[in-house]
Specification:
The protein is of the alpha/beta class and about 220 residues long. It has a single domain, classed as Rossmann fold, CATH 3.40.50. About 25% of the residues lie in helices and about 30% in strands. Helix 1 crosses helix 5. The two termini are about 25 Å apart. The chain binds ligand PMT. The site of ligand PMT has 26 residues, from helix 1, helix 3 and strand 9.
Length: about 220
């Protein structure tokens, strides 16, 4: 019997990749499968939370007892997250959000002409940093996907985005992180030593993240 220790807690989770259109047949995206965020959503719901999952396109089945909102672009994700933020207690940004969008989405398929093509990429706003500026009672959790200087980059994000916790992923390893069924992460919290969550299924890692959030 699953403990119901998240009863009455409203949890907002983002998961999966975002998709930035280039033209009617092409887009920019990334390697996120959604597994980490979906595991968090399912485990939180199983522990009694009211869970809203904002998801980019994935191949995964919807978690049960979870309200799922589908999005495509970073802009869609931002609108949905910001509209749900006030009514949630735990907000966990596991989605791999595009840092750029294409300046002008072409109405028609861009034709090749034997020459190189330049795409004008415009920076997307940092959604998580925006939430860090407006949070009140929320416990705000970010993820970081890094390939080098992990602790340094992670601590910088924890501080600059005003987070209560940062889940640090080493995406240079292929056995964990993007698309694998297992993960190994470090949890960074202000004024605390990093906590290593040893390699385990994403379900178990999700439960350990939720345990830590409860005692914050
Ligand atoms: O989906 P899986 O295949 O299971 O893989 C899981 C994962 C590796 C994708 C996931 O655990 C993870 O690390 N997600 C965050 C990936 C990411 O976008 O990292 P980042 O370091 O670029 O961003 C840091 C944080 O800011 C993230 O919480 C991200 O959601 C957020 N962000 C990023 C860019 C942006 N414009 N707005 C944001 O809010």
């Amino acid at each position: 019997e699953q403990k119901q220790d998240l009863n009455g807690i409203n949890v907002l989770i983002t998961a999966g990749p975002t998709v930035e259109e280039i033209d009617p047949v092409r887009y920019l995206t990334n390697r996120s499968s959604g597994k980490m965020g979906y595991s968090l959503a399912q485990e939180a719901a199983d522990r009694g939370a009211n869970v809203t999952l904002i998801s980019g396109p994935t191949k995964l089945a919807h978690p049960t007892n979870v309200t799922v909102i589908d999005i495509m672009s970073a802009k869609d994700l931002q609108q949905k997250v910001e509209s749900k933020f006030a009514q949630n207690d735990f907000v966990i940004m596991a989605a791999a959000v595009s840092d750029f969008h294409v300046k002008t989405i072409a109405d028609q398929k861009i034709k090749k002409n034997g020459k190189n093509l330049q795409l004008d990429l415009v920076a997307n706003p940092d959604i998580l940093a925006g939430l860090g500026r407006i949070k009140v009672h929320q416990r705000l959790v970010g993820f970081a996907a890094e390939t080098q200087n992990l602790l340094e980059n992670g601590n910088k994000k924890l501080k600059e985005k005003n987070l209560d916790m940062l889940v640090l992923n080493d995406v240079s390893r292929s056995d964990i992180g993007f698309n694998s069924s297992e993960n190994e992460v470090r949890l960074l919290q202000p004024e605390k030593e990093p906590k290593l969550l040893k390699k385990n299924t994403k379900e178990n890692i999700a439960n350990e993240i939720l345990d830590q959030l409860l005692i914050l």
